[in-house]
Amino acid sequence: MGKRNLYLKTTPVEEAKALYLDALKKIWEPEYETIPVIEACRRVTRHAVYAKNSSPLYNASAMDGIAVISARTGGACETKPVRLQEGEDYVVVDTGDPVHHPYDAVIMAEDLLETDREDQVDIIASAAAWQHVRPVGEDIVAGEMILPSCHRIRPIDVGVLLSAGILEIEVVKQPKVTIFPTGTEIIEPGDAITEGSIIESNTRMFEQMVLEQGGLAERRSILEDDCEKIRDEVKKAVAVSDMVLINAGSSAGRDDYTVHVLRELGEVLIHGVAIKPGKPVILAVVDKKPVIGLPGYPVSAYIAFENFVAPVLAMMGQLPVRVDYEVEAVISRRLVSSLKHKEYVRVKAGVVGDRMVAAPLARGAGAAMSLVRADGFCVIDQNCEGVEAGEKVKISLYRDPEEIAHTVVVTGSHDLILDVAADLMPLMHSGMHLSSTHVGSMGGLMALKRGEAHMAPIHLLDEGDGSYNDSYVKRLFQEPVAIVTGVQRIQGIMVKKGNPLGIHGIEDLKACRFVNRQRGAGTRLLLDYQMKKSGILPEMIIGYDREASTHMAVAALVASDSADAGMGILSAARSMELDFIPVGEEWYEFAIPEAFFELPHVQAFLDVLKSRRFAEEVTGLGGYGMEKTGEIRWIR
Questions:
Q1: Domain check: are 142 and 130 in the same one?
Q2: Residue 206 pLDDT exceeds 50
Q3: How would residue 323 be classed by pLDDT, with cut points 50, 70 and 90?
């Protein structure tokens, strides 16, 4: 007769989980491998991945129609159509075709009027420069971070990686899990059923749950209730596996041998957990490998797996368990939608104060990176014209709300150092993340004022005294705001390698095709200041009104010959192998209201900012001074 297993005590769930994970973290060493990107779906990245190519690789037509020279379409209207000549005024293009200089806009085929000649068309509306043209790097810019470390690769990520020129990727090795069903009364599905027999299904469920959690599952044949056989098979499995699961035999019955076997082979840390159903759980370590005994009742088995096996697999695979959630959030920007469609708008989410804020991302059909960056969707129903900024909406989240609650929401000026900080946050502070959207320095301060961000990266020049940032913060905020020094960086004019047009300063921009930053961006304010000093009016510069939202996007347009010059930072120019004419140094800093300054995730960001790892990676980018990085001054 077998000896009964008596529970001396049951351990609370969270205590048992923490004790087990802490023990495993001391002995578990992850392994990595390099695999083809086309085989990488559902695998976990080891390092941050950066784009090799831009996408599109060239200025591309977004419509079927004709590519035109926008300046030649002025004055066209229904009562006075403008006739265009093929080869001189336009060329026929299909969606995705290159749009080459001097053509700078596309008119849709349905907006054209046929004439009595095949090589001529009439237009009844003028074309704005760059309408229906996807510029180089609209979706992906070479050198930008595509995926962070510890990211589980999705199908959309595979497409973006390939578009960005990435063919191989280093990933975490999948943990191999051996699963044993036990019990003399257990039979396989399809076997002859006799009185007292039970069809075994739990371990088939475990197989799928292991696969869902990113592991490799090997389910073995049923083991009868024989202590020696169980011990021998488990010992062999531990030698070739990363984890072993034993189903049934973990309770207090006379034939429940699992706990005896595991005590003989290794160390049982927990036997019995204060959970109902699912109490008879065994958490053990054998030869530095996790071995878990799971109860035999199906519901108990499922609950025990979710509570104890899933967290261990997540630790081994370096990824949290994936769960989707529906929450209420405040939308940060007005969304207009068609009455014809049910629309799924990709959003970044974060908790600011006592509310969740959702920032809409790019909505274009070609903007695949917005899916990679998104935390979830805001669904706008059919027959709804949209939602207003500040309105409450339902958000379906990919990420755990708890994870989002520990995400620093950064809205404002763009810089490559934000990618570096975002990558280091979860590596240096587990569970802490950084989410950034780029709306320019003034846009960031206004988002802070509306309570839609924790901090705003800014570089705003005061033309009166030449100082940076303080005067703008004083003017906009009544409450105390900390200004944390990020980096001193060099702003200048980015031009093609070899500087073929001989551009040496702001005054030379009158003789080239220029691409600007968006209104409210600190870079644009610096340009305007320098133009004013040189007596240059905006209308003197071709392309002054053409805008790009990041330094890397400007650099990509210059590198692709879509523009001759653009203002930006030295690190972006170096990333795209462009020449650079310095215009001046500036301070790129972070404005943080007092109400958010002591938040754990904000403090984690400040720790990253002052870290040696951050300094090493930023220095490698070039063009930054870091002598005062992390210094704090208060504006009261």
A1: no
A2: yes
A3: low
Whether 551 and 430 map to the same domain: the answer is yes
What's the structural domain count of the chain?
5
| Cα(590)–Cα(29) distance, integer angstroms | 37
Question: For residue 564, is pLDDT > 50?
Answer: yes
Check whether residue 268 and residue 355 sit in a common domain: no
C-alpha angle 586-437-555 in degrees, rounded to nearest 5: 55
Are residues 232 and 354 both part of a single domain?
Answer: no
Residue 583: closest CA among 515, 513, 516, 493:
493
What is d(CA 214, CA 49) in angstroms, rounded to the nearest whole number? 20
Token pair 């003017």 in the structure block, residue: 475
Average pLDDT over residues 420-443: 91
Q: Let me know: does 302 contact 308? Beta carbons within 8 Å.
A: no
CATH of the domain at 150: 3.90.105.10
Identify the DSSP state of 389.
Answer: T
Return d(Cα 310, Cα 320) in angstroms, integer. Answer: 9
Mean of all residue pLDDT scores within the chain: 89
**pLDDT for the residue numbered 246:** 94
**b/e per residue, 499-528, with b = 16+ CB within 10 A?**
beeebeebebbeebbbbbbbebbbbbbbbb
Helical spans, DSSP H, in 513-611: 522-534, 551-559, 570-575, 594-597, 600-609
For residue 265, the tally of other CB atoms under 10 A from its CB is 18
| Total-model pTM | 0.69
CA atoms of 89 and 69, how far apart (whole Å) = 6
What pLDDT sits at residue 8?
47
Residue ending a domain, among 284, 317, 350, is 317
User: Which pLDDT band, with edges at 50, 70 and 90, does 387 fall under?
Assistant: confident
Give yes or no: residues 278 and 396 share one domain: no
142, 528, 554, 567, 624 from 570: Cα distances, Å: 15, 19, 12, 10, 8
Local confidence band at 168 (pLDDT 50, 70, 90 cut-offs): very high
* Residue at 389 is within a domain: yes
365 and 493: one domain? no
Tell me which residue range forms the domain holding 110. Answer: 60-134
Residue 608 sits in the same domain as residue 464: yes
295 and 226 share one domain: yes
Least confident of 4-8, 157-161, 387-391, 490-494: 4-8
Confidence of residue 147 (pLDDT cuts 50, 70, 90): very high
The whole-angstrom separation of Cα 445 and Cα 439 is 10
